[in-house]
Amino acid sequence: MSLFETQGVIIKTQDFKENDKLVWIFTEKSGKITTIAKGAKKAKSRHFSITLPLCYGDYMMFRGKNLYSLSEGKIINSFQGLLSNLEKLTYSSYLCELIDISLIDGESNPNLFKDFVTCLYLLNTDAIDYELLVRSFELKLLKSTGYGLNLNNCANCGKKINTSSYISLANYGGICGECTKEYSIRISTAAYNVLRFLNSSPMDKVHRVNVNTEIKDEIFKVTSSIFSSNYAKKPKSLEMLEYIKER
Ligand SMILES: [Zn+2]
């Protein structure tokens, strides 16, 4: 077995046997991987705190045939502060679920990893619209998994467009005035502009936009429709998000 070192974030855990845990880590070097953490269920274990959900750290593990086996880890940021606020907890759980649902095991994606960590750091602050931040991450996730939106050209014919009233769910982008609007979602000009800004800007620029609930709902309709039409599993935390938004 060879030793492997990488940065990673714990996205999911599951009890395994009497004292162990199965841990899904989104890593910088190898994408999403499954690791067995011996003894991690016990609070006294050196593996306990480094395998808590959302923990971001430097991990050393042995690469086995099917599974990795955790050797040791050093916490960079435990992000446990996210767990004490219901809104932040729900959004961060949602991000982890999205990663779990949309990434293939072992496929490295260092840029997305960087965005994911940035997103957790920004969620951990208080000066940002969490909902828009999460939409921005969704757009980056879609881009890195082959479903990126093109909002500067017609998704059907390629003609340059400045705006559009429809987003194609078949070709992932705006549709020009001449093309068919089949299998698409209607969108306002304001929402289209915000979507284009989020799609092309780094996440730390999200605080520059300030939009109302209607526009946020329109943008969510676009991203959630693309996710649900391409991935069979639906994040469980979506229901919790709806509940939070209704209050
Ligand atoms: Zn067109």
From TrEMBL:
BP terms from Gene Ontology: DNA recombination; double-strand break repair
Protein name: DNA repair protein RecO
Annotated ranges, domain DNA replication/recombination mediator RecO N-terminal: 1-79
Gene (name only): recO
HAMAP family cross-referenced by the UniProt entry: RecO
Function of the protein: Involved in DNA repair and RecF pathway recombination.
Keywords: DNA damage, DNA recombination, DNA repair
Domain of life: Bacteria
Any Gene Ontology CC annotation: bacterial nucleoid
Similarity section: Belongs to the RecO family.
